Amino acid sequence: MKFQKKLLVLSLLALPVASAFADGMVSSAESDVKAAGTAIENGVQSAGSTIESGAKGVVSDVDNFLDDGYRGPFTGAYVGAKTGINDSKMQVGNGAAPGGQVTNGATGNSPQNYGAAVGAEVGYAWKVGSTVLGIDGAYGYNGSGRFGSLGGNTTSGYNSYASHDYALGLKFGIPVSDVLMPYAKLGYGRLIGTGAANGLSGNGINGGLGLEYLFAPHWSVAGEWNNMSITTNTNTINNNTYTIGVNYYFSAAKPHHVAAAAPAPVVAPVAAPEPAPAPAPVDRWRTITEEKPVSLDGANFKTNSAVLNKSADEKLMQVVDFSKRYPEADIQVDGYTDSTGPKAYNLKLSQRRADAVKSYLTKHGVDASRIHTKGHGMEDPVASNKTAAGRAQNRHVEVHYTVREEKKVRVQN
Q1: What's the confidence (pLDDT) of residue 372?
Q2: What architecture is the 281-412 domain classified under in CATH?
Q3: What pLDDT sits at residue 217?
Q4: In which element (H, E) is residue 313 found?
Q5: What is 76-249's CATH number?
Q6: Where are the domains of the chain?
Q7: Which residues contact 34 (CB under 8 A, 6 or more apart)?
Q8: How far apart are CA 165 and CA 88, in angstroms?
């Protein structure tokens, strides 16, 4: 009983101390919570601003892609057909050895097969920086033909064989110009033997190298080497095919559209000031300056190139006629692009287009020393690059030429 009384007294004495301690803790906790709340609020605002800015950039990039797409060669969906020669070797009994048990139970070197090869492919490719990356699916039939030993001597006792192959993989190309692209293929496929190789089938790596030439906006021709090798137990087929094929691209690059150029401003002759009365006549010079800019829109060029179309002849012949009438006039050719694509690529493209105009003029008799060209890339836009209409206005080539005429004017002082 005495212990309980002492405990009660100590509890009553501790209440004021505990109360004060609790007040201090609450005050400190309240201050910390307020500080943390302020920091969190500032952080959320900063993060929200960053996310909003990034989202706007992504939306702008997606909008640019959806509006314009990639105006370049060797991209989009395509189908193709090819034909050529198949060179294959079959090893039965020991795929790792140069010889072994071969077809019909004979022994000796592995039989070599040279036959016709035909195939088809389908795929889709995208622009990735300055390269082209695509997904490619292919089928090939490799027929039977002449066959013999590794030494080149025809060996009797061998039955002819052929094969089917299926492959799916990546196609990686590096365009070296607007119409030429070397490429490589790497993927996974299935090879199925027929004839003497019936029942010999399996899966393996499929790869190859090729060179593709775009001879029309939708059409290309390609030369290609392809290899696939499969081993089932100890039986092996190694196929090498060499083909020439034709591919068709369903979508060509969107043409560049530019609003019609405004009428060329003509500076009126400067009127001679009224001469003050003078006892004797004096000679004065008057200078007349005339500028006539000509704008060529993107439709006058082939897709994503600097090759002029026939539609540019009318405007450029105006420049040719003008240069004949004013042989002392210099000509300035300026090329521009919109903001789509890498800056360095656009700068080169704008310079090539300006040079194409110069080449046209010189072929029609204009002295090359009078023509000055410069590519400006995406600089000096005449409209906003945030809209498709604005980007269309920024894709143009301008030709400026200036004539200065001096005339004597006899006035009285």
Answers
A1: 93
A2: 2-Layer Sandwich (3.30)
A3: 83
A4: helix 313-325
A5: 2.40.160.20
A6: 76-249, 281-412
A7: none
A8: 12
